[in-house]
């Protein structure tokens, strides 16, 4: 009896260990690098032959049991292989910009209507909204202005404030899908709200929040083909400067006198969009996608339920 790995189950190799990423179910499991090699060098898994090859019946039986239990493999013969083609790894999106990071600033929030129009014009689907100080009035103003926008998801990073009725706000504004409140007295998660005792005052928070890992076909394919931190992403930092992401040194003008469309048309804006992880030495061993992103603040850390928006190298 022989088996084949489901096409939606993607082995991804790391330095010390690997993972199998199930992009259909949005889950993953750690595996030894030895199992990664087996899965990626055999179109058909013949476990009896593998026992002979590796002279280790026990470990091969454990691998088989693990793969079957997690429904990563199914019975298949060599003659049936052509019936189960591999998934296409092409990544395409019709939007000029897929998502944005917006740090609160008086400059950036001075004309929310114009900002909203730019978001709609560029086709931005998700926004990561960042406040470093108490923000109830400004947050509500933003949510109210963008309530009829093209945004599908607004995610929030803000300081914990007992006076802020975040559940009431989230109930009224359905686009607010995930929330991280820092400077909390405890670390806990309740529904779509995460409370953390960590403190943040600038964009150096990237990578400082962990524990959440979301997987979907779009993030997988984007990471294969592009720089998942910068591809089709734009940001406005706390001083109003337009950047690829808030932590990058180069800016492309200030929102007070430069539109997002003008920044996007700057010849350097897309310079790093297609620098994949395979081109970066430190990321190369976890090449294709998500393994290199586990436990960093990414489209995966902030998204507990929906599309990820802020990816790290």
Order of helices and strands: EEEEHHHEEHEHEHEEEHEEH
Cα-atom Rg, whole angstroms?
A: 22 Å
Mean pLDDT comes to: 83
Question: Hey, roughly how much beta strand do the residues contain?
Answer: 15-25%
Q: Runs with pLDDT <50, length 5+?
A: 207-213, 285-313
| Gap from first CA to last CA | 42 Å
Helix content: 10-25%
Oligomeric state, counting identical vs distinct chains: single chain
Task: Tell the overall outline.
Answer: elongated
Which structural class best describes the helix and strand composition? alpha/beta
- How is the main sheet built? 8 strands, mixed
Strand order of the largest sheet: 10-11-9-8-7-6-12-13
Q: How many strands in all?
A: 13
Total helical elements: 8
How would you portray this structure in words?
A hairpin with a 5-residue loop joins strand 12 (about 235) and strand 13 (about 240-245). The chain contains eight helices and 13 strands. It has about 325 residues and is α/β, with parallel strands linked by helices. The strands form three sheets. An eight-stranded mixed β-sheet has the order 10-11-9-8-7-6-12-13. Strands 2-3-4 form a three-stranded antiparallel β-sheet, with helices on one face. Strands 1-5 form a two-stranded antiparallel sheet.
In brief, what are we looking at here?
The chain is built from eight helices and 13 strands. By secondary structure, it is an alpha/beta fold. An eight-stranded mixed β-sheet has the order 10-11-9-8-7-6-12-13.
């Amino acid at each position: 009896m022989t088996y084949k790995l489901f096409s939606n189950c993607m082995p991804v190799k790391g330095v010390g260990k690997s993972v199998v990423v199930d992009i259909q179910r949005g889950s993953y499991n750690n595996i030894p690098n030895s199992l990664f090699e087996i899965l990626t060098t055999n179109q058909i898994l013949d476990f009896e032959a593998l026992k002979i090859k590796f002279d280790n019946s026990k470990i091969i039986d454990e691998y088989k049991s693990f793969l079957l239990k997690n429904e990563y493999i199914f019975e298949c013969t060599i003659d049936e292989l052509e019936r189960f083609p591999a998934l296409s790894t092409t990544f395409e999106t019709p939007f000029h910009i897929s998502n944005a990071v917006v740090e609160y600033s008086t400059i950036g929030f001075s004309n929310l209507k114009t900002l909203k129009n730019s978001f709609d014009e560029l086709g931005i689907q998700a926004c990561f909204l960042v406040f470093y100080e108490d923000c109830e009035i400004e947050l509500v103003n933003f949510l109210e202005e963008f309530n009829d926008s093209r945004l599908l998801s607004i995610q929030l990073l803000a300081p914990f404030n007992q006076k802020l009725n975040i559940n009431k706000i989230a109930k009224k504004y359905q686009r607010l899908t995930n929330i991280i409140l820092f400077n909390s007295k405890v670390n806990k998660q309740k529904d779509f709200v995460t409370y953390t005792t960590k403190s943040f005052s600038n964009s150096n928070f990237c990578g400082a929040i962990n524990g959440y890992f979301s997987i979907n076909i779009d993030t997988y394919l984007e990471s294969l083909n592009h720089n998942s931190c910068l591809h089709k992403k734009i940001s406005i930092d706390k001083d109003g400067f337009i950047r690829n992401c808030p932590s990058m040194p180069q800016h492309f003008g200030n929102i007070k006198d430069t539109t997002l469309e003008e920044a996007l048309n700057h010849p350097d804006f897309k310079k790093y969009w297609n620098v994949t992880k395979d081109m970066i030495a430190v990321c190369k061993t976890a090449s294709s996608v998500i393994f290199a992103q586990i436990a960093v603040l990414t489209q995966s850390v902030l998204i507990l339920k929906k599309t990820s928006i802020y990816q790290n190298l």
